[in-house]
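Technical note accompanying the year-one report. For the benefit of new consortium partners, we illustrate the data format agreed upon in the data management plan: each record pairs a sequence with a structure-token string. No post-processing was applied to the example shown here.
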Amino acid sequence: MPATVEAALAAPLDTETVLAACDALSRALRDPGHRVQERLGPHLPAGTDAERQELLAELAEFLA
């Protein structure tokens, strides 16, 4: 299995695939109910909900 993962990571990615992934992540970061936000929660810095949403909005804007 490690060799398979290594080979997959070594393969070049199509530009359109990367752009589509960035767009999808940007949309997920803008949606407070999306499971991506739920999974990111424990990894975000401590702060108010508003501060955390602002950080996610900044990340979403960067990826857009």
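Partners are asked to follow this layout when depositing records. The helical segments are 2-10, 15-30, 35-40, 49-63.
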